[in-house]
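Re: the 372-residue chain
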Amino acid sequence: MRYTPARPTIYGETLDSLTALLKEHGHPAFRARQVLTWLYKKRVKTWEEMTDLSRPFRTWLAATFELEPTKFVLTKQSEDVTDKLLLELGDKSLIETVIIRAPQLGVGQENSRKTICISTQVGCAMGCKFCASGLEGLKRNLSAGEIVHQLIQVCRQEDDRTPRAHAELVSFDNLVVMGMGEPLHNYDAILRALTILNAEWGLGFGARRITLSTSGLVPKIKQLADEPLGIRLAISLHGATDEVREQIMPINKKWPLKELIPAIREFSEKHGRMVTLEFILIEDINDSLDQAGKLRDIAYDLHAHVNLIPYNTVEGLPWKRPSLTRQEKFAQVLDRGGVSVTLRREKGHAIDAACGQLRLKTEKAREAAAAN
């Protein structure tokens, strides 16, 4: 389904596009940078707060653009200080944004490192068997402005709660495009959004601290390799052989490992950066030591880092995470084989942490309430 708002959100505009639009309507070009400063440096919520702009110009802006394309529905926090934000879009669709905190010794929670995980679609078309995001298929793509505004919402929330945020332009350390949806299935919007977030007139967030995760759209990986932005790449691998990967990821039938691996290598060589291979550990599916050995060989050949992620249970799906002992033995095979590996510890398991799960539960609750 395609959603066309009554007015486009201003968060989808670049400095060049906004400048051109202002000039077209008889407004001075320098106003564009002023507007963007209010949006990204001061993070205002209303046009009236843009006090150095004339009232007639603010009235024109309000008639031309939507200022708040997302709004909070709820925030859930786990015991390990992972926050999951549920946001509502203009068409009442729901998306998830996650704040993952990593407390550092001696600095306290208020100043801990924070990684933000954002969504790019409402739902997902990839059909991965273990994932909550795609259980009801793809509803629609997010616009660039809707993607950007997730970060604005996070920044505002952190501005209100931490001393560190008040002293910095952006109150987080890393951005991962690993939320709901397949980012490369919404290529133009995510590229525009990341350009805005990276730009000095935007949030000024360094490309090296941005990681985009894909399930393996080979042509788009190659296209991304030719982009100048220079972000990092992660691959949702989840199977070290075609036989295993095809059981849980239909995309592997279209782009099997023999096509995916060369595309990963091409990206890595062009950007000179280590790629991350994400591997969700699912009991009796991909957690065997044979899979560990084959994953070790792939990662070693690609000089890639492996991120092992114990499966987060999804209501209605049969999959389970392996025992901690099984997880650690799997990781040891990689480590002893000279592969850089991280075994993710608990982050958000108690707050519907599986991607898309909080959204699904909220939608079902809404439907039940409407029926009564």
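DSSP finds 13 helices and twelve strands in the chain.
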